[in-house]
Amino acid sequence: MGWGQIAEKVILTNVPNYYISDENCENLYYKAMANQIDRVFISPTSAAVGKKFKDRGVKTAVSIAYPAGCADPELKAMEIKNCENEGGAADMYFVTAAVGYFMSGHEDNLQKEMTQCVEVVNKPVYFIIEAGEMSDRHLRIVCNMAKKTKAAGIISSTAFMPYEICREPAEDARRLRQYAEGSLEIIVSGAFTAIEEIEHVIVNGADTVIINESSKIVRV
Amino acid sequence: MFDFSSVRDREIADKVFQEAKHFLSLCHFGLQGITRTEDDVREIVAKLKETKMAPLAFDTEMQFVPLVRELFTDYCCDVKLHCAVSYPMGRYTLQTKMDTLAKLRRMKVDDVCICLDWQAIFSGRYKDIETEARTIVEEYQDDFYRVALVIPATLMSDTQIIETCKALDSAGTVSVKVNPGAKLGVSFEEVALIKRVFPNRFDVHPSGNIRTLAEVLRYREMGCNNIHTAAALEITNAFIEKRLNEYGGI
Fold first, then answer.
1. N or C: which end of chain A has fewer CB within 10 A?
2. Does some domain include residue A134?
3. Handedness of CA A65, A62, A218, A176 (dihedral sign)
4. Domain tally for chain A?
């Protein structure tokens, strides 16, 4: 695959990084444009920068409840509303699901957060999980719920490195694709260091891949 | 946890137990993170209950508050519950932080920390930091045991630490948590800098990468009485052994 084909399937992000200034965030957009990437993933506190780039051909995804996902469903929906009220820089939202609580048997909570977050805004809403920590049964339930609630897709991982979590991007892509079938966008997030790794993940079923802006894959 | 029945002299055993109880009461203990399950919470609460002591607060996620409360109902000590807001990077909007705090207040959580907007800190927007801190402090300062505002000191220059603390000072902040943990660990230099530039001004909570008894004792000597360490029980054990050695109990 050439870079042009890959770039169409890439979202560039700085969300997992600790050190982000306004300038870093602007550079994220410039880096995306320089690398023909048309989606970036930022935090709510970066929305003011996102607004400046609104009509520059780059779409913006905004994180909700990142990285722990432990806020309750009402708060997640309120966070989306707050982001909309503060100027609506987002073209879509990436909501971290309450993974541990779900894995404790609270499927109703996941159902609620998916329903409330999708219904509160007329934009695509995706849910971030930690697929590597979840059983096949869990993934099947997550994907079925996402389809039922009209979520736009599933993101395989927070890629937040301080969490000591098992992450196998290609395997996550394969497992998620199996349950998502054709109706959910599968986005795989990981610490990618080479184009071959991205190709491997796409071959295994990912529609899209999230790359950290610090990765050497993206040339300035 | 240390088995006090192995100490022959009951008087020494009781004395050291009381001292250890006080020692642990200055440290946080708990469990947080995206994949933590109720089983993990039960396990860690059971581990704490073996000590018959209470930490300064038990750190947990909002969803687990009812469970943790229930697990401690039959415990010998009163355990305060602590939740972190916008943890660890402070990326929620201010309104979302306020909404979350309102929810925690309704849930009667005892103690909170809130990560400030790090992007504002790293961009030198100290006025925004002051506004954020003032909004939080004015609304919630009196509603929780502690309302600690978290700064990523390890990623900041001395100037950034001082300017941020000036903003927090102007906003009327009482407690400052120095680093969130989550791989960002505090250093003695960071705490010393704040103590030197703002003498007797802030209640400083060191956090992250505190692994040994010597480190906890040094932070206490520096005047910190609210210490976040994932190794609180192991360090309390080391404290017990040290005291028993000193008193001739071993």
1. C
2. yes
3. positive
4. 1
Residues 50-69 of B with CB under 8 A from A: 61-64
- Residue in this structure with the two tokens 């969803």, named with its chain if needed: B63
Q: Between vectors from CA B249 to CA B49 and to CA B241, what angle results, nearest 5°?
A: 50
CATH number at residue A106: 3.20.20.70
Residue of A nearest to B39 (CA): A104
Q: What is the DSSP string of B210-237?
A: --SHHHHHHHHHTT---EE-TTHHHHHH
Entry pTM: 0.96
Q: Which residue has the tokens 């932070």?
A: B219
Nearest CA in chain A to B182: A162
Contact B96 A165 (CB under 8 A): no
Q: Which residues are bridge partners to A188 per DSSP? A: A209
Is A218 among the domain residues? Answer: no
Count A/B contacts: CB-CB distance under 8 Å. Answer: 117
Positions of E strands within B93-211 = 111-115, 147-151, 175-178, 203-206
CA distance A106 to A166: 22
**Using the 8-state DSSP alphabet, how is residue A211 labeled?**
E
ipTM associated with this complex: 0.96
| Cβ contacts of B70 on chain A, cutoff 8 Å | none
B181: phi > 0 → left, psi -120 to 50 → alpha, else beta; which?
A: left
Q: What are the structural domains of chain B? A: 1-79+212-245 (no CATH), 83-209 (3.20.20.70)
- Size (chain B), residues: 250
Q: Which residues contact B211 (CB under 8 A, 6 or more apart)?
A: B229, B231, B235
Q: Could you tell me if residue A160 is inside a domain?
A: yes
Quick check: B26 contacting A, CB < 8 Å?
no
What are the strands of the beta sheet with B27-30, ordered from one edge?
Answer: B203-206, B175-178, B147-151, B111-115, B81-85, B57-59, B27-30, B227-228
Give residue-wise pLDDT tens across range A46-84. 999 999 999 899 999 999 999 999 999 999 999 999 999
Owning domain of residue A29: 3-212
Q: What is the pLDDT of residues B183-224, one digit of tens each?
A: 999 999 999 999 999 999 999 999 999 999 999 999 999 999
- How far does Cα B223 stand from its chain's mean position? 14
